[in-house]
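User: I'll paste a sequence; please echo it back and then give the predicted structure.

Assistant: Echoing your sequence first, then the prediction.
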Amino acid sequence: MNYSRRLSALPPYPFAEMEKVIAEKQSGGEEIISFGIGDPDLPPPKFVLDAMMKALKMPGMHNYSSSEGEKFFRDAVAEWFEQRFNVRINPDTQVCSLIGSKEGLANFTRAILNPGEKIVCPNPGYPVYRQAASILNDNVPIDTLLNAKNGFKPDLDYIAEHDFSCIFLNYPNNPTGAVADSSYLKRAFDICREKGAYMCYDNAYSEMTYGGFKAPSILQVDKNMESSVEFHSCSKTFNMTGYRIGFAVGNEDLIKAIKKVKNQIDSGAPKFIQYAAAEALKQYSKGIPPKETRNTIAMYEKRLGLLVNGLRKLGYKAEMPLGTFYLWVYVNEKSKEFASKLLDHGVVVTPGPAFGSGGEGYVRFSLTVDEKLVRRALEKIELAVK
């Protein structure tokens, strides 16, 4: 089989490979504690399940939706966004439902860029930016390195020296857990505006923050929505990863472009899932998440603290993140070698290079296992690194 050049240029998706390894070891009867994939172990809140059950019995909920999403979902998104970020958006022209934000990120550049145009991608970063949104659309990724020295944020002076058509930013950040404040986002947006480039802001972890930090929106900076689109997901906020429901908001012409691509590709997320997601967003009160979401965040914070303290006792300079449920740890050796040692003892972590060459020397822990398993994993890690 001769595959297309763009497909041949793609490296294997790291989490697909990881799932295969985990399945093989588990089938052999091994105890596996996986910090690999960012898939919450907690169920969705009861209000999500109740809304889903209600919607399943409602007439018309089993028919096709539309690529832009149902009116009730887009209205809920607009209401939530105004509550959460004090930004008013038009639900009819500035909101588009997504079959998970991953799909939207990949389709965004297909909608707005021509082959060969350059996209600034964080390295390390979520693989979708470099692979699905850039290479698979015949665009050219420009790496911008994230490291501890710059707080795992792109060097904006470096970016300003390059020509590009689009930039991907993601804060709170996967994989590093770093955050960015409004002043940083404003400078990044100003650079984009000077270059006539589009700002693609992945805010999927906006609700997952600690230490009193509250994640901003790029639309609080690009107040006129000149050239920005922001992507959100219900996956982590409401433990709805398998539901595949998210949304894009922002510049009217850019949202229109996303909708036009999606019209050719999909028929929208199922109506009953949109209904459940809409009801979940409505649980916010004056921008404050429901107690179920707050409890989930507190649980992740406790797990992170447990792992940070345990790794420090083993001699690693683990730092508590301000966002996400990921712990990004420098291991002072080749990432894959460290991950292999842990895997030999039944602990799965993601080697840093899975997120780009800038991740070498690091591994990512996803805190989607309970405290008992975190403690058990620390025992295994101690044995592995002796």
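Residues 291-313 form the longest helix (23 residues). The two ends are 46 Å apart (CA to CA).
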